[in-house]
Amino acid sequence: SYVLTQPPSVSVAPGQTARITCGGNNIGSKSVHWYQQKPGQAPVLVVYDDSDRPSGIPERFSGSNSGNTATLTISRVEAGDEADYYCQVWDSSSDHLVVFGGGTKLTVL
Amino acid sequence: QVTLRESGPALVKPTQTLTLTCTFSGFSLSTSGMCVSWVRQPPGKALEWLALIDWDDDKYYSTSLKTRLTISKDTSKNQVVLTMTNMDPVDTATYYCARVTTGTTYFDYWGQGTLVTVSS
User: What is the pLDDT of residues B57-92, one digit of tens each?
Assistant: First the structure.
């Protein structure tokens, strides 16, 4: 089945920009979705269809997707952004319909 | 207002069968395009997709767990049930149900999750 690869951790100082990548074979041809998960909580959708934001998600969260890499960008990082982030795709060509990345721990220094 | 809530045993013994129920409100699983899925997360580990059922009763399973999983729905009760056979300690995890709405491929609403521990 399709594999998504994320870096285990990313660290950034407050006010700086965090970039979290999600690698996959020709991922640019798929729609990529991103979830934020804080300790003890369910995941929350922060970006869908590569670059769209659900209502209530700050404009600081943005996404892009091209080639073999999708990227979640968090601008002007705040302490409250510290969380685990997961990418996800829908692989309709496979019996294994939904694929998650391994997750990235964002640490705000 | 869309809500989902998982229920089931907090503790199961190895080799037993786990039955989890997702009770939802604010939408109908008889609406074209609607889906409900199960996702789990072992302590300290990543999300893992398990199964999905759609409005038309089509079912999809994780290829690695397919032989152990069954997903079903009761539209009149607004419930989706997941059974997992032959439970093992490595199946200890928080189990979430989540919705996929018509025309999309992402989970827009999640339940709060239920922790299932497998231990004798």
Answer: 999 999 999 999 999 999 999 999 999 999 999 999
DSSP readout, B67-89? GGEEEEEEGGGTEEEEEE-S--G
In the block, tokens 């594999």 appear at A3
Tell me the per-residue pLDDT of A74-90, one tens digit each, with 9 for 90 and over: 999 999 999 999 999 99
Provide the greatest CA pair distance for chain B: 43
Indicate left, alpha or beta for A43 from its phi (over 0: left) and psi (-120 to 50: alpha): beta
Q: How far is A5 from chain B (nearest CA, A)?
A: 12
Per DSSP bridges, beta strands B93-100 and B35-41 are: antiparallel
Task: Give the separation between CA B48 and CA B40, rounded to whole angstroms.
Answer: 5
Name the residue among A31, A98, A102 with its Cβ closest to that of B46: A102
Q: Is A1 exposed, middle or buried (0-12, 13-18, 19+ CB in 10 A)?
A: middle
- CA–chain centroid gap for A63, Å, is 8
Q: How many CB pairs under 8 A join A and B?
A: 63
